[in-house]
């Protein structure tokens, strides 16, 4: 067993060594993952709110539309707290889990490597905590992160394993912070009692503070604010908004300046406006502008990049035309042209876009929302993909 561990750990070292050798300078506008505070814009008030919740043992739920920066904010917060000896910080994303068993595997995987870094001790810890559930330990080929798989046959085994994990956490000297990303996923599990089960462990464990996060606002708000549900009032909320455009402009300009390059004020205004200040879409444009290597960037260069992005995505967007009914597609296009709409049944809107009966539009609206193509925020509907919106506007 020991030899197998050594081989795997050696493989990871070799992998990291190789990537470091061939690494290009960092593009300061990541579009996938959080890197470090240098590449992270603002969110100072949100950071204070998160740390305050952690320090005062209050659970908190972060909610925002997709790709606005929830995961990056949690990562940023954990990065800021990484030297706090009194805290142990754990993050896991349950988007891909389909049931309680997979949830428990992921939870134990995210905890197991933390308290012991030596493989032998890690194994001993695992056996002590979850030995009765015949755990199998493996390591991710690329990241080296440990993964635990438990053999859980019955519902009572699932409940017992969860109890064993929380019992183990309650005995830690450090306070435990667990961030569960895409938390609404638990409402899709086939097991009936997941909410109640989790709630009871979280409630009875003052040593554990939870950060929940997700983009399905309706689902998450009802999870925590409906009287009859187990999680009722067990968490505060952080509704994440767009980054202040003025701060975003300063942030973008500073990264170009650092590289000895210049981006014009009007170009910054154009980006923020075109991408509607939505984090991911702003990042994607800036990433490409930075990659272009141009020394001076004005509006024509930004337009060129936005044109390229839409061209690249066109094949994907054409698929929507076949995927949606004619009335759904017409409605999507109409909302894109208006940027956002408040009253979808207003007769002026229906006639302007030749959408037909209000009842058909209401059904199409529901279908588009279910498919996550549009979202309802601040009393109006808009497209969730800004690039798709800009592409439809050009059709
Ligand atoms: N404050 C920020 N400054 C700079 N980049 C950011 C900031 N917040 C997020 N990003 C970047 O924007 C992209 C989208 O952010 P992130 O994945 O955190 O969004 P999300 O809300 O978790 O999305 P999803 O709902 O799809 O999970 C990432 O590349 C991330 O690094
Ligand atoms: Mg996320």
Task: Break the fold down into its secondary structure elements and pairings.
Layout lengths: L1 H20 L22 H12 L4 E4 L6 H11 L6 E7 L6 H16 L3 H12 L5 E4 L6 E4 L5 H16 L4 E7 L12 H10 L4 E7 L2 H9 L10 E4 L5 H14 L3 E2 L1 H10 L4 H14 L3 E2 L1 H25 L2 H13 L1 E2 L5 H6 L5 H13 L3 E4 L2 E4 L2 H9 L1
Parallel strand pairs: 1-6, 1-7, 2-5, 5-6, 8-9
Antiparallel strand pairs: 3-4, 10-12, 11-12
Adenosine-5'-triphosphate binds next to helix 3 and helix 11.
Protein model, in words:
The structure is a single chain. The chain is an alpha/beta fold. It folds into 3 domains: 100 residues, Helicase, Ruva Protein, domain 3; 208 residues, Rossmann fold (3-Layer(aba) Sandwich); 72 residues, Winged helix-like DNA-binding domain superfamily/Winged helix DNA-binding domain (Arc Repressor Mutant, subunit A). A 5-stranded parallel sheet has the order 2-5-6-1-7, sandwiched between helices. Strands 10-12-11 form a 3-stranded antiparallel sheet. Helix 4 packs parallel to helix 6, helix 9 packs across helix 10 and helix 10 runs parallel beside helix 12. Bound molecules: adenosine-5'-triphosphate and magnesium ion. Magnesium ion (MG) binds next to helix 3.
